[in-house]
# Entry
Amino acid sequence: MEALIRQEADWILSQQLSSGAVVTAYPGQAKIVPYFAHLALYGPAAWGLHLPRIQAYLHWYLSRLERPDRFGVTGTVYDYYLDEKGMEVPTYGYDSSDSYAATFLTLVRFYYEAGGDREWVEAHWPELEVVAGGMLATLQKDNLTLARPDWRVKYLMDNCEVYRGLKDYAWLLIKAGKEGEAERYEVLAGKVKKALETKMRCNGGYCPAIYRAGLRRRPNWRRWYPDALAQLFPIITGVLHPQEENARRLYANFLRNYPDWYLQTKPENFLTTLVVYTAALMGDNWRVRRYVEGLEEDIIGRGHPWPYHAAEAGVLLLALKTYLAGNSSY
# Structure
């Protein structure tokens, strides 16, 4: 297992550019998508691996904060593509303003926990505060965020990540002795959690999105994305504790609809490693083992074919960290 962990961490960092950016190699084009870079680096950071390389990415992200971006929002980072000369070219767009910022703050916490690099964090408080502002730039009166200023949809996945980002930023502030500021973000996190429970819970799970005029779409468990996948995010981000009854019911609903998920490890039927991370959090150990065994044979052993990419590997490392913490004799 140790060899697998180091191999995947090395593979993730093999996709880092000299600038510090981490590339997601889409078929036909290499792109820099910060959201996926954050998930990719969660794994090595959680294991305390390649910390100087992770710091290089943190510098890359902070150096590209928009002040403001083309939508008038300060604290966002665009996606980039590589031109024929390998130059990083901004797309002047991003999938979400709330999740990119939230997951960056979570990555900073992983990095701090792994190395205790208080000096780096203290040296970058002004930029981190800008990132926190970008995360909350689309916060609405109901305490849920819009995905982007120009895409007025409140997604379950995004708001779960915002909750986690708020909690992690509050944790960083406490570590820096800024308890008063931390309390503000803890309160905001509590409001987001309450809004998720009161406004998005429905039909044995959560609404995957709330649209304009408060239109809620009930989850269709047979639609994998975003409906079914989104149901895992309250567990992944800590909105629900794995031992809570609501978490157990939610995971049971998922298993009823996807009983064979742990067998889907081939490129043609691959299910994201976010599922095995959820299973590890829920203590579903035998499915975790079966999935990882299949992944080693069908994906990792075959050179990481698409759709497996760096973010999938990063989340896998989180799953293994969680699994091994509860199975020290493995």
Notes: The longest helix spans residues 179-199. The chain has a mean pLDDT of 95. The chain is about 55% helix and 5% strand.
